[in-house]
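Quick start: read one record
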Amino acid sequence: MKKIILLLIVLAYNNQEISAQTTQKYLIKNIASNNGYNNQGVSFFDDDFVIYSTQKSASVQSHTRKSKRKKKVSKKLLPENLDFYFGTISEDGDIVNAQKLGSEINSEFNEKGLCFDSNQEIVYFSRENYIKNSDKKHFELFKGEVLSPGSWRNIKKLPFNGERTSIMYPSLTEDGKTLYFTSNKSGRFDIYKVKILSDWGFGNPEKLSNKINSSSSDETSPFIDGNTLYFSSNKKGGLGGFDIYSIDLSNPNAKAKRLEEPVNSNTNDYCFIKNKSGKGYFTSNRASGKGKEDVYYFEQLIKEENFVKNDKTVKKIIVTKDTLIKNESAFNFQRRTSYDKKTETKEIIVEESQYTNEKNIKKGDHYSKCQMEFDKINNIYFDYSEYYIRDDAAVELDKVIRVMRLCPEITLLASSYTDSRASKAYNLKLSQQRSSSVVKYLLTNGGFSPDRIKAVGYGEERLANRCSDGVKCTEKEHQINRRTHFEIKNY
């Protein structure tokens, strides 16, 4: 009998109670930080931080109109230009503690669309400016060196910018050798790519094929993920406005496929990005939003891929960790099951007759018992400049001990932090002392093997609120940052 290999790849997933739209394949939500203006173009900096464009506050514009009897002065609130903001990714996908980047990055005009290389050392972004000898504007691509998420230097224009046309929405391959972008140099907006030959050496920009670009539509906001290119197009046959498409560039016979609802809607959907775990962001101006354009967070719950391996058809299903297999006992599992602790993936082979379609796969109503119990554990907190375990902290640590005894296969990561007061070197040492105190308590009272607990001190990095250096905060606000957070590293 011909066999289909079914690989169930189980990814880490947080079972959060959030207001969101969930289908069989996607969960999406309008992030809390959206406002009544334009919010768009998220780019991952690393697993914990993003940079995106938004219009925050508004300025007052006065307009005087004369009539026969008297002058009338009207006032109108206008939003700021689109500027880059740096924010932290919360556990449920919101962007929190957003801070506006400096004037060396944000100009008097709009900035939108950016990407980083895999080492977070180089940034490419698009900035608006006046066309030479004209009162009209266009977008140009820039490159800079990254000192920190909010500090860039040596910012310069790329040499292939057009004099009167726009280039924007850059996306860089993981190896840093090819840059994709959008340009209207041919009259309509199309997707292009250019080879990166050296630090400031570039090949000639190439317009992508008609499998992606259409002579009768606009294409924009490319995002390259391995061999898969995501982009948006307002071509015919879509749901309405710009829709998000994907295409496998490694397959010469591949065709662009429109992503399903609710990622796509009957309005404009673009600026799609995602990470390796299937979580990401896109921009939309759908009617249910808060502003003119909103950023939406999504999680890809089920993904299918077909390919050939050893002359056999392979169906790979990627599901989240709390996804259950319906009638699992009916599957005749071959004992070639493997588990990768680093990627938290599981591989199982079943015969074709035992796999019908994704109706056999459904999203579970809850976590495993281990995760359910672990979700009841809160952060623990420390007094200012201290690292001893307080009585309230001991209550939470005892919960940790109970879960680790209940689930002897799990290992734990304890991440400790400080508030922003005192020097960074002092705070780093203090956070490490706090982690050591946590480990000592768990080992002494739980009797665990030391290799089941990993503890890291981050100092004043990754503050949980706005209380950075120089910001006046209450003691209660500072307390939020003096914490240890717990995370299960593997099952």
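The longest strand covers residues 137-148.
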